[in-house]
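Q: Convert this sequence to structure tokens.
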Amino acid sequence: MTYEQIIKDLTNKIYKPIYYLMGDEPYYIDKVTNFIATKVLSETDRSFNQTILYGKDVDLGIVVTAAKRFPMMSNYQVIIVKEAQNIKGIDGSEGVAKSKNINPLLHYAENPLKSTILVINLKYKSLEKNRKLYKILDKTGVILDSKKLYDNKLPDWISAHVASFYKKIDQNASVLMAESLGSDLCKIANEIEKLLLVIPNETKVITSDHIEKHIGISKEFNNFELQKAVGVKNVLKANRIINYFGKNPSDNPMLLTVKTLFDYFVKILIYYYTPNKSKENLASVMGVNPYFIDEYIAASKKYSVQKVINNIKILRQFDMKSKGVDVVRTDVGELLKELVFKLIH
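A:
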């Protein structure tokens, strides 16, 4: 099930006996866990019927024993197992029980107690679909496989998250946040929610100015602006940005700059070799928002196919240099100046 489906069912008080929340994106795993922890039972019932266990402190036997208890003066009890990735056999492997070659969770999942809501919070690990446990849980419980968002999906996710607070964010601001904060949804959500606390209520649209003022991300000196400057061969602007990066290397790691530019030129190459150059198709093939397709079209007029290929090679070389391989100079500013010069000329 998707996160949205799970939350909809929970809101409608449609409960399943087991929630197996797994994957590489902790944001949705924690959102579902917190919803169940705060919304299913009343505050009074939580005192007697809600238990939080930690994977490093328990084994499957303890978890299943807790799940088999009946609630006290309530229709449900909630058992939440955090850090479940630390529990041996949580993935359904056999040979866990000491006396028998059987997995207690596997056995319990076949006939779970209807009055128990067991939440297994399993981060950075997944249950393989060919496991018997997966097939059983698919029938008796709920499985959430929370996957990392691709970078090109982040601006839309940011826009949607802002919209959930009845606000809007302009496209440049959402891209600026995505480019500067990375793909950690928890971090992005926290920054958005902090931002919404300080901007005036009458402000309907979040802009790059708000991002710069309240989050501390420069709207002028960032990888997104550098990418645009290089794309149109604006030497002056590109050098102003890399000079800023050179003076603030900890806030602007060279490795991230090289990766951003590498991805940029790869997308330009994809543009060249895509027969159907409609904006919708290009956006799909290149993995970018249609709003930015014009920038790639403009860049393709500045850079030939051969130059794009050469730039990708150059960026591979500087990726190694950024990691200290085959480089005499270690000054980030000087390396970036050399890189930008070679890309543009």
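The radius of gyration is 25 Å.
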